[in-house]
UniProtKB/TrEMBL annotation, chains A, B:
Gene3D superfamilies: Jelly Rolls
CDD domains (UniProt xref): cupin_reut_a1446
Protein name: Cupin type-2 domain-containing protein
Domain Cupin type-2: residue ranges: 37-104
Organism expressing this protein natively: Blastochloris viridis (Rhodopseudomonas viridis)
InterPro entries: Cupin_2, RmlC-like_jellyroll, RmlC_Cupin_sf
């Protein structure tokens, strides 16, 4: 069962980010992602077929884009990442964990 | 310009909820809604053509559904409201304001 509260029932920290699908219906998938210090591997860029609208709910993170843009995110920040907009996660706060709400759509 | 941070640039309290569209693309519309004590009028039920996935980000609210379910929402709570699931907002906290993220989709 996905959580009814995004700040509750946090999975234990592990080597990977914890991804839970909250809703997947039609053209939309909504995930809670809990990061505990993970970052994209050196030289790795996400290049997604779906648009992603992401909200940083707790913690902190830095993103960069292959056009050179860098974003330092704090709770409440939102980022619209269109499909094939190459981006990477440079850092995430480990403790307290970083909690994201990610809305993937087409 | 919609806000880049959901907790920032809150609109001044007025008689109505303040609705800002953060993204509208394809089958998805994402809104920030700021409530300052508003509630649905007596006997009013929302009966929407779109599915709505709503997150209470700050404040507090109570929802009810025409099957008798009642939900008291606190920050981080999420609710999946399928299209034509009749519901109403019984109360919202006025101060500090209640902040919602609403994801409408088809």
């Amino acid at each position: 069962m996905p959580p009814n509260n995004l700040f509750a029932a946090l999975p234990p920290a592990g080597p990977d980010e914890a991804v839970e699908t909250l809703l997947a219906r039609g053209a939309v998938r909504i995930e809670r992602i809990v990061s505990t210090g993970q970052a994209s591997p050196p030289g790795f860029w996400y290049d997604q077929d779906e648009d992603e609208f992401v909200v940083l709910l707790a913690g902190a993170a830095t993103l960069s884009f292959d056009d050179g843009r860098e974003l330092a995110l704090r709770p409440g920040d939102v980022v619209d990442i269109p499909a094939h907009c190459r981006h990477r996660v440079d850092s995430t706060q480990a403790d307290p964990p970083t909690i994201w709400l990610a809305i993937f759509h087409r």
